[in-house]
Amino acid sequence: MIRTHRGLPCTTGTVSAATNVVRPSLASTQTHEGDNDVKAASKQLLHESTSQCLLRSRDSLRCWQAALSSVSGLPPCLEDMSAPFYVALIFDDNCMECGQTGSYFVDYALGVRFCGTCFENQVVQGTTLFDGVPDAVRDAVLTLIPSEQSIDVTNWPQSSLSRIDPCVHTIGEWYYKPHVDKVLKMLWPVPLADILEQLMPMLLKQAEAVFIRQMTGTLLNFWDQVFTQSRRVSIDAVAVMHDVIRELQEEEFCHK
């Protein structure tokens, strides 16, 4: 699993183990902050771009959109996220559950930024979530929710981008519990045939939205790597990654 701390990947199996990697990473970032903390500059740019008009509701959406577009290479905000939430996810350091500052357990695909305790409580392995649920229902639920980002963007294209596809989600991956609970309530107990038929268009749309969420999460991780660790990496690298993922979407997802 890859957990991101201000663009520094922590590849671990548990939150407690990740903490041991995050702490020296934080110290390293603080030491070289003047040299390569591009996210800090981006955060300041966003603040300057939005601070003058956020209180004017008529103009706020336009201001947020303009501010986000001013950050080089940043993937566009997802349709199911507000712009302020998107900015908080990427640039803030407050836990979205308890409000604690210095919260660097972030997963862009899940759309969460937590402190270590809340991450451990809220992001759990699928093996713990489906007691008593038939396998067919469980598999349907897993295609309708994002999983924790598991693609090593530091090693692409060797890392398999096929994991973006929600059809390959497994119970061995990690999920945000509220996502699971919401979808599970719709599908278990199994709805009557006529109700299930009515739900199908919405479920298909949800599966596509999950694919886009996983794709955007990968792009954000890649952007995070490029713009916080090296100013020498070309903006073209983000565009190339975007094209690769779009091709995967067209070839492997849309034709299913």
Notable features of this structure?
single chain, 256 residues, 8% strand, mainly alpha, two-stranded antiparallel sheet, two-stranded antiparallel ribbon
Please tally the helical runs, counting DSSP H or I stretches of 4 or more residues.
10
- Helix-strand category: mainly alpha
Largest sheet: 2 strands, antiparallel
Helix content: 40-55%
Shape label = globular
Element order, helices and strands?
A: EEHHHHHEEHEHEHHH
From the alpha carbons, calculate the radius of gyration and give it in angstroms. 19 Å
- The neighbouring-strand order within the major sheet is 1-2
Uncertain stretches: 1-36
- Average the pLDDT over all residues and give the rounded result: 74
Share of β-strand residues: 5-15%
Head-to-tail CA distance between termini: 27 Å
Number of strands: 6
